[in-house]
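Let's practice the habit of predicting before peeking. Look at the sequence and jot down your guess about where helices and strands might fall. Then scroll down.
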Amino acid sequence: LADDAKIKVNDFAASNAVSILAALKVVRYVVDAKADLKQYGLADPLWKIEIDAPNAKHTIWLGDFEGKTKRVYATLPGTGSVFVLDEIDALILARPRSAYEEMEKKK
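Done guessing? Here is the structure:
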């Protein structure tokens, strides 16, 4: 949402996503290093999530679904590792952009 300063962020949705990221647990590691990111939909990820914290910027990329599940492949850019996130975390993090935008109240 940072690319459009006019958009008002839905504080609840953003806070929820940050909480999920803070408590994120990996279901399993697929590759520890030097992964072929394209194989997991991570060379051009479906989602790039960046959180600017006071002391650091945290980024996670979400790629393709794992097989026929709702779990997704993910990576921390630059690490070369690939891991799988559980279905609930993936569903919350990969909500459409509109879910993070504040809706205008009708008068």
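How did you do? The two ends are 25 Å apart (CA to CA).
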